[in-house]
Structures are given as C-alpha cells and as structure tokens.
Amino acid sequence: MAKRAGAWDGNVAGEMFVDDSCIYCGACFHMAPHTFHDADKHSVVGAQPTNEADSRWAHLAAVSCPVSAIGSDNKSAFREAAAALPIAYHDNIFWCGYTSKKSFGGLSWLIQRDNGNVLMDGPRYAGPLMKRFDELGGIQHIIYSHKDDIGDAAKIADYYQCPRYVHIAEEMDAEEQLALSEPYALDDDLLLIPTPGHTLGSLCVLHNDILFTGDNLWWNPNFQSLSASQHYCWFDWPTQLQSLETLLNYDFRAVLPGHGQPFIADTPEQMRDELSRALAILSQDRCSKNNQNIWECPNG
Is 188 contained in some domain? Predict the structure, then answer.
C-alpha cells in the first residue's frame, strides 16, 4: 500500500502519487503516460488526471504496479480498475496489467481467439484478473517470450490446465520445450519466431499483424523511435541486432513488448520504415553499454 509520507517530492499535488517503494519498472508510465512520468530512476505523477479516460488508465496502472507504489484518494476508481483488467487494447488483444515483481513489472497480453485464448508471458496472479480471464473464455495456451517475464504464469497454467510453450534454450519449466532455429507455426494465426540475443531462447510471436516482442523491441517515447537496450542484453548484442533485422521480413503494424511502450503504426510499411530507422541507430559503433536506463536508446 502506497504511503503519502513516502511520496516523492516530484509528484504534482492532487489525488494520486507515487511513493519511494517504486522500483522503476516503467509499467505505470507506459500504461498511463499522461499521468505518470519518468523521473530518472523512479516514477512520479507528472500530471493529475483531468478527465475520465486519463483517470481510468491512471488507476489501471496503479492496480498494475508490481509493488503497490501508487496511491490515490479515489478508492472507487481503484476498485473499478481492479475489476476491469485485462482491458481491451487493440482488436482482440487485452492488456493484462497486474504486473509482477518477479518479472520486474513486465507486461503481459491476452489474445482472445476462436481457437483458444493465448496468454503472452505472465502477469501477477490475482482473483479479479482470474475472474475476468474466465469471463473472456479462459486460457488455452501460454507462450513465454523468454525466461524473465513469466510472472505467475505457472500458477495460471495450473488453474487452467493449459500448456506453456518456451524455447528449449531458456532451460526452464514448461510443458512444451521447442528447439527452434526457424519460425514455427503454432496455429494459422500464431507464428513463433526465434529471435536470440536478449536471451539465447528469446521468441517473438506474430499474431495476424501484431508482433509480441518480449524484451527485444519497444517504442521509446523520448526519442520517438523503436528501440532496444544493449545494457539489458543478457546473451549477445550483435545477435540481437541480427534477430531484429530478420523482423523486416514480416508484415506487422503493432509492437507489443514485455517492457517498454507499445507502438501501433498505420501500415506494415510504416512499421518496416521505423524498424529500419531504429536498426540504423542501434547498429552505430558509438552504442554504449553504460546506459542504465532500459527506456533510453543505447545511443542516446
């Protein structure tokens, strides 16, 4: 529970605040960027919500904080947000919220499908979230982008008795261990793309024109570009860049990451241009490992 006594001085006055238990995962300012701002090593309320939409997203982000570092005087909005997640985000995709400290606030996504719903990575296990999952048709498959962002997916898999899919190189517990060196079609609308680099067994998942990127790629609002992090690359940075380059071969409009801000382009061509522009920056020799901020471009 967030405490006013521990609120950061950088919070603007008003009903919402962030306290000093913040771990700087970034989940809040990616879910509700109008309200929560990056204050360099922690988040703050940079602008109090002034309309219903901003208030709703701010409270969804508060419920989703992995360490409950966000407080609000509006308790009814908290209760409504707790019951609303996962929230519809784009087409048949739902933003799960309820991020887990185990995955450092990693984002997870629900794909609602006629052939069985898919949970992409793992949120925190919470009663209201499970109730909403049930209402949306349950979970038939769980796909891990890599070993860092699984949250409480094992507990969710046990509840639904559904298989978890992971690249075998991640060396972790899952029912389906996939030894992939080439893209693998799990279904007509689910293509698992091996993208080693961030970890040896990192995967991207293509669903129609939506690409779930794990910790491979995200939108950087500070630089208004797609980005990735050399500092937070656990296996091999040149390999990660090569993997990102292979994504130019696919048509997609949306990048939905595990960490970082999502991005939706108008067309696959625009997305390809954005990815090409990002690769040109990320591949420059002045790329620095000293950058400690996962949201910044390594060349920033």
Answer: no
